[in-house]
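sorry to bug you again but im stuck and you know this stuff better than me. theres a chain ive been looking at and ive put its sequence and its fold in token form underneath. id like you to explain what the token line says about the fold, in plain words if possible. anything you notice is useful, everything is just below.
___
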Amino acid sequence: MVPNSNTCPICLGLPGTLPLLNSEAVRHGVALAMSLNCTTPESLAFFRKNYFYPDLPKNYQITQFDAYGHTSIGGNGTVNTDDGTEIRIRRIQLEEDPGRLTYEGGNDGRQTTLVDYNRAGVPLVEIVTEPDFDSPRQARSFMNMLADTIKNLDIADPYLDGAMRADGNVSVHDGNKVEIKNINSFHDLEKALHYELTRQNSLYENNITIQQETRHWDERRRITISSRTKEAELDYRYFLEADIPWVDLDDDTIKEISANMPESTTARRERYIKQYNIKPQVANVLISDTRCCRLFEEALTPETALIIANILTTDFMGVMDTREKRAASQITAEHLSKIATLIKSNKITRAVAKDVLYKIAKKGGDIDDILDASSYDTSKLYDIISDTLQKEPQAAHEARINPPAINYLVGIIMRETRGAADPQEVLRILGELLKE
């Protein structure tokens, strides 16, 4: 979208404009709080957070602040990351999004700040966690889990540019906290946290004071840059937003929101284990990616559920090893269903299935065409097996007098065919040729 092409008097904070609370945003916020095991108060309060910054034309932001007890839309929740670490949710607050700042460097070496107000005033939910993360990788894992939850609740599409953002807060050795902004992806979040940890540890080791400040992530140079001194909560001079009254959340509304929520990831995990007899560790991996869950649900039959779950969590996630690659892959539920059926009927091996899956995920295509182009027909197998027996006369002799020793030859042939040959067919042809 062209910058500043979708604005209005409210976006720009023009005199005389008044805010209006978005009821759908409140419902989405409550649903998200429930999904993250947070408590929701009976009444919500909104505040003005006062600060001057170019992306905030009113010079204050409408947000939530627990000045009178728990009045934010959610709080005191807990969720677990993939490795089982418990992350505490301090607060979930509903607020308005400010504009967007971008930075461009000029030929003279100076940096220019540009402001885009297109998203100013859009409802935004901010989730504040406790400092429970042990590594940047764990923070990225948490954000992936959060994206899946938001997608599952149909609150927003977290993969759209700017729809889901993260600010990182880093402190080492009980020192001052540094906030990192201008992070545009979960990948960059991990990189920014890594850099900032290294920078602060270096300062600490050299007895240099770590300043409490806000720093920006420079994606091009892969470093953080000092932006401004970090304000304390008192500096924002919070006071109640007079134009938005307190909002009461009655029991009937809470029950209605709860009844209309989709199945949670926890409930889905338990269903996969009980209904399809999937191992807990496989179910954990499967529910970690909403695309894989959708493919699984659309492709499975009672007979192929286990096969498809294993294909997705080992073969598919193995070749598509990032969320971005999986989202861009060409694989469909129809592809998975057919591959699982072929495996179950012993028409292809898992090695062949993995090769086919990789090719389809990369470029799409028809399974039969890919198999025709890469399959080993009987005459071709005869040649490969005959050549193997000539090269391995001792192994052939052992197989004739000790039948279990034939497995050594089968292994050689399967490596030679890169797993594309049918093991049963290899055994059959080997048996014929060893009798000669």
